Amino acid sequence: MNKKLRSTLILLTLLMLILAVSVTYYTFFLGKDLDQKKKKLNELSEQIIDEADLNLRLETLQKKSLEIDSILSNKRFFVYSELSPVSFFQFTNKLAQSFSSESQVNVEYIDQKSEGEFQTYNYKVGGYGLFDEVFGFFRAIEKSKSLKKINSFSIGTTVQVDKKGVPIYYTNFDCEVKSYFTGDKNFAPSKPLVDSIDRKYLYNFLYPVIRAEIPPNIYDLLDVQDARLLALLPDGAFIADNKGNTFLLSEGEEVYLGYLTKIDYKNNLVSFVLNKGGIIEKINLFLETNDSIKNKKEK
Predict the structure, then answer these.
(1) Which pTM was predicted?
(2) Is 192 a member of any domain?
(3) Which of 46, 53, 130, 225 has its CA 20 to 30 A from that of 69?
(4) 150-194 pLDDT, tens per residue?
C-alpha cells in the first residue's frame, strides 16, 4: 500500500470517528437538553396572552388595589412602612403653626424599639401654650391616622403678664410619644393621607377659681370702687368715679371687673356684680337725696 492511500484511509477513519462522537453527543446529551428546551418553549407559548387580556387583567387588579386602599383609608388607624423619624417633627411643626406666638413646643428624639410585629420611634415632647392649643395638640396625636400614642404626660399652669398687664394662663406639659411603623406594606394605603382633625372646645379645668392676678382697667371702664351715683333715670344712671369722670350707664352694661345688674329707680339705687379674681362681690350705690343729707346732718 502506497503512502498516499494510507494517508487517505487514516483521514477517513478520523472523520468517521469525529462523526460518531458528534452523533453520540447530540443523541445522548445535546438532544435531551434541546427536547427540554422545546418543551419549556411550548409551555411558555401556551401561557402567552394577547394584549386585550393583559389590559383586562391589569384593570381588574387596579380596581382591587383601589378597593383595598379604600378599606385601609377608612380604618381608625393604620401603620406605615418605612416611616422616617423626621416625620413626627414635621407633624408637630404643622400643628404648632396654628398656636399663638407665645406658645412653644419642643420635640426630642429618644430611640427606636420593637413592639411585636411593629417598630416605634420614641420622642419626648414638652412646652407650653393656651389650654385649647395644648389639648388640641394631644387630641391630634391620639387621633392621627398614622398610629401614634401618648405613653405618659404631665401638665401644669404658668401665669405670664402681657405688656398691658393682663395675666395670661398657659398650660405647660411634658409627655412621651410613640410613633408606630412596620416593614409590612399591608397595614396602610399606598398613598399617604393628610390628617384633618377639627379642634373642639374643652372647658379649661386648670383655670384657677381664685386668682391673685387682677387684670388692669385697659378700656377705661367705670371703676365702681369709691364711685358716686349722681342721678337716676328710669332706664339709666349717671355715675362718677373717684377721678371725677362721669358715665351714663344702663342695665347690663360692662364696668371694670363686672356689670351693672339693676337700676332701682324707686329706691334710688343701682346694683353691680364684680368678679375680683374669682371672688364675686355685689355693690350697691345709693343716690343722695335731700332727705338723706338732712338725716346725716341730724345724726
Answers:
(1) 0.58
(2) no
(3) 53
(4) 989 899 988 888 787 788 889 999 999 999 988 777 655 556 655
